[in-house]
Structure formats: structure tokens, C-alpha cells
């Protein structure tokens, strides 16, 4: 069976944009307003001749209290169903409480995790991506899901975890 890769992270970090980048088409719904993606949407994906299922996640209410807990809960479900996880953070914002909540879930799951520092549209932002080492999830792969920068290296690293 094809391995399942869940894309998790708090709203607005660019998960759906990243999914579209990997698919090479615009299927996942990208929104400036967080909370639009339904809970989990699966897509057939391929890289270097290897097929896998990519699961975009979202669906939490952006105005709710206890948002970090909600995000962690959603991520937990997706992570349980996955063989590997792409954890997306926003390099332009830095680490938030919501990010930390997802990290806790990732650690407990013991699933292979690829850490992606998104929105590195410009090489001058590389230091912001490198700051994500402090999450303790290994090497942060810096990408610009919007422009495609770094996505090939990221996918090579993902395949190495499958
Ligand atoms: P999600 O909630 O995590 O699925 O995030 P989306 O994919 O819907 O993106 C949220 C916002 O961030 C949208 O306005 C995107 O255009 C923007 N965005 C996503 N990736 C990038 C990126 O690499 N660079 C920049 N500058 N903006 C991005
Ligand atoms: Mg989304």
C-alpha cells in the first residue's frame, strides 16, 4: 500500500499551499482566513517515481478558546493515521504556543517527522528557518511553498523517511 503522509501545523502556516506545490496543481484550498480546510483531505501524490498519499489537515475554529489544544487534537488524529508526518511552521513568525502543542503530539507518536520551515521566500530568511532547530525535531527544511523554493530537497528528505 502507498504510505500516508499527514501535513500538520497550526492554521495559516501554508499547509494547503505546500500540498498544492507537491501535487503540482491547485486542489487544496488556500485561504488567508485560517480554518477553512476540512478536517482531513487526502490526495494521491508522487515524487521521484514513488507514490504516496498526502493528507492536508485543518478544520479548527480560529476564534475558539483553547486553540492550541484543538490544533493538537486535530493533528493527533491525522498523525495516528499516517506513516510519516510533515510538520509545517512559519519561519516568518517563529515558534508559537500552537506549534509547541503539536510538537508534544509528534514526540509521543514516535512517527517519522519532517520539519518544514515555510515562507522562506528569500535566502535572507534562512536564519529564521535555522532557528527551528530548537524544536528538537531535527533539520528544518526551508521552503517557499508559494514559489517552490526548496521543495525538491524537502521531498527527497521525505522519501528517505518512508
Ligand atoms: P494553511 O492554513 O496552513 O493551510 O495555510 P494556507 O496554505 O491556506 O496559506 C495561508 C496563507 O499563507 C495564504 O495567504 C498563502 O498564500 C500564504 N503562504 C503559504 N505559503 C507561503 C509561502 O511560502 N510564502 C508566503 N509569502 N506566503 C505563503
Ligand atoms: Mg489549509
Automatic annotation (TrEMBL):
<feature type="binding site">
    <location>
        <begin position="9"/>
        <end position="16"/>
    </location>
    <ligand>
        <name>GTP 1</name>
    </ligand>
</feature>
<feature type="binding site">
    <location>
        <begin position="118"/>
        <end position="121"/>
    </location>
    <ligand>
        <name>GTP 1</name>
    </ligand>
</feature>
<feature type="binding site">
    <location>
        <begin position="56"/>
        <end position="60"/>
    </location>
    <ligand>
        <name>GTP 1</name>
    </ligand>
</feature>
<comment type="subunit">
    <text>Associates with the 50S ribosomal subunit.</text>
</comment>
<comment type="similarity">
    <text>Belongs to the TRAFAC class TrmE-Era-EngA-EngB-Septin-like GTPase superfamily. EngA (Der) GTPase family.</text>
</comment>
<comment type="function">
    <text>GTPase that plays an essential role in the late steps of ribosome biogenesis.</text>
</comment>
<feature type="domain" description="EngA-type G">
    <location>
        <begin position="3"/>
        <end position="162"/>
    </location>
</feature>
<protein>
    <recommendedName>
        <fullName>GTPase Der</fullName>
    </recommendedName>
</protein>
Amino acid at each position: 500500500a502507498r504510505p500516508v503522509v499527514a501535513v500538520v501545523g497550526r492554521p495559516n502556516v501554508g499547509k494547503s499551499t505546500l500540498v498544492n506545490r507537491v501535487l503540482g496543481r491547485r486542489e487544496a484550498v488556500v485561504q488567508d482566513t485560517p480554518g477553512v480546510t476540512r478536517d482531513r483531505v487526502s490526495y494521491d501524490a508522487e515524487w521521484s517515481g514513488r507514490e504516496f498519499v498526502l493528507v492536508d489537515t485543518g478544520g479548527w475554529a480560529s476564534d475558539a478558546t483553547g486553540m492550541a489544544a484543538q490544533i493538537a487534537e486535530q493533528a493527533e488524529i491525522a498523525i495516528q493515521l499516517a506513516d510519516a508526518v510533515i510538520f509545517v511552521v512559519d519561519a516568518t513568525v517563529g515558534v508559537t504556543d500552537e506549534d509547541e502543542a503539536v510538537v508534544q503530539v509528534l514526540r509521543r507518536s514516535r512517527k517519522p517527522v519532517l520539519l518544514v520551515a515555510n515562507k522562506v521566500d528569500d535566502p535572507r530568511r534562512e536564519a529564521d528557518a535555522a532557528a527551528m532547530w530548537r524544536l528538537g525535531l531535527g533539520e528544518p527544511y526551508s521552503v517557499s511553498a508559494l514559489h517552490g523554493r526548496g521543495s525538491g530537497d524537502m521531498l527527497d528528505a521525505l522519501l528517505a523517511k518512508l
